[in-house]
Amino acid sequence: MEIKNIPEVATRIIIALRNGERIILCGDADLDGAASVIILKEAIEILAPHQYKLLEVYFPNREKEGYGLNLIALKQLKDKAPALLITLDCGIGNVREVELAKKMGFEVIIIDHHEILPEVPKASIIVDPKQKSDPYPFKEFACAGIVYKLVKFLLQSVEKSYKPEKFLELVMLATLADQMPLKEENEKLVTDGILSLKYTKRPGIKALMELTEFRDGETEEIRKKILFPLNKAGLDNHLHVAYLLLTENSDNKAKKFARELLIKSTKKRGEVEVIYNEIESRIANYSSSPDIIFEGNSSWPLALVGAAASKICRKYQKPAFLFKIDKKESVGSVKVPSGGNAVKAMNSCRKLLKTYGGHPQAAGFRIENENLEKFKNCLIKYYKESR
Asked: Residue 320 belongs to what domain range?
């Protein structure tokens, strides 16, 4: 049994390659998104090594564009139409954006693993095991895990001898980075990925392992020494820095790249601590124990807000809604304790939001500033009624 629509996507990609169509891979700007793009891109290059000029990669800038497919991204990409636009680790919440992309001449395929919202985009094909109509029994893959299954089907439908196992290390890193439950199929993907890490041929991973004095390969060591710098990497001209490092073929360039990344990640740890301490001081002035922690600031980098939200959520065991305030809109990151569902909470307030979505325990949103206080009150009401 395959995840719903994987055979259809594989067939569509093969047709695109045969017809010489342009393919654009649009990935979410985190490690899962980067790994998903790399896996699919390298699989396509195996099948059509001479068509690399027709393959484009784009990662939305969260600071300027927010999460997922967005209007700014589409304006940047409009001159590439007509093309097959494949969103990876994003897209399932982008109803209006998908409609606009279609009007621009793009055919849109969504490959995602986030929660399904009440309104689903009218893409050409959607792969997301959380669709109600998907009978596949396991639903908790990282997006890279779904793409791995797609690539396995895609490669072996063309030539049985193709071995997709070289992508397991990327699947493992993405699964751990997105904190997906390590059970059933994920447990095997992560176990096999850790084993393959010892034999990696990727100069970027080898450089990180060498520079951080990587030793035993336990999950916690992977999180601290490999995942943190990769997860906190930013963008370089709409290419995720983790993507650039993980696809670098030169040992010397990879080592230089990795060294710079580690320096930046150490700096970012300190910046996350500054945000965390500021929120701590605000919480100290609360008159009573809150149902949620709802805080924002125009100076907080959006790329670091999620890490701060995780720390606050872990300490207080309360839903943390943190956001960067821009001139007219705010973009936020949400973390909730185990057993909670951030998407369900925001769904109850969806009329106030421009976009929202994600996982039950980790999600994001975009909202007009004039609705922030209404959103806060709506969330407080939701959590009080959910007790």
From this structure: 287-385
